[in-house]
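Hi F.,

I've been meaning to write this up properly since the lab meeting, where we talked about keeping a consistent format for the predictions we share between groups. The idea is simple: the sequence comes first, exactly as it goes in, then the structure tokens exactly as they come out, then a line or two of notes. No screenshots and no reformatting. I'm using this chain as the first example so we have something concrete to point to.
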Amino acid sequence: MNPRFFLSSIMRPIICRMPRGRSFLTTCFGYNWKYDKIWADAPRRNRVFFDKTVGANIYADLGAWAERLHYFCGEHYDAENRLLIEKALGEADTYIDIGANRGIHTLQASRIVGPRGRVIAFEPNPRAFDVLKAHLVINRIANCTAYNMGLSDAPGKLTLHGPDGRLTASTGAFSFREIPSAGAHIKDVPVSTGDEILKDTELTGRVLVKIDTEGFEYHVIGGLRRLLQYDDLGLSVEITDEWLRGLGASAGEVFDHLMSRGFKAFQLTASWRHLLTRVLNLVPLDRPLDIHQYDVLFAKDRFLSDR
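Output, unedited:
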């Protein structure tokens, strides 16, 4: 047995409790994508654990780096969106997860909005969607509707491109954007507009939408014209200008499109207030940042003022 597997099992309880310094240890134990082939041979490769920050049981395949990192750290790496869900949502609100992947944020939002709230998740990757559905079952989630499809500015069928030839690895990195090194392709994936799918859905309370579609965000937003008129609305959008440009858009166009419709922009960052407490920071923006990738909250005044 690879000693990395044994030592990781011993160290996991310690890593899960560490408020800081996890990145060094996780690198030592090979939790990033470069070690997927090694971890594919791990004993009990498939694990289920409880993530107390999400409040749900989580399935993890140790052969996939993001799931492996989640398992050994005990919490999802996307702290910004987790903290935003905690801050922005309450009982009877609505969460729309576009590019839900395995449904981690879907599970957290489901718990927070409660039985009178509503969660709607979209995930086009069949493997990720299977895990999402399993998560809904094992956590007995009854307030979520999940769609195995993508969203765009027009209906049709598209091809998902993956980072390598293993459909089990990095499900969150699959994109409708052409990936030069792609070795995995899922053809004829159905897509529709968000407005069409949501036309008969009654939205309740505050509405928070997360859009993380690996460069396809501008096209997704283009299909949400009716939703964008909702007053108490916030959009958490992953911005990667290089990827947006690969699909004929840009970060500037995303900002212009939403800010011209009454949204204000804030970069989402997470920082440590105390040794054990992380807090969400909303940094006002009037234009895109000159960095590779970051999350932006586009919010209307009512969304910002209520809580």
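Notes:
The chain has twelve helices and 13 strands.
The chain has a mean pLDDT of 90.

If this format works for you, I'll send the rest the same way.

G.
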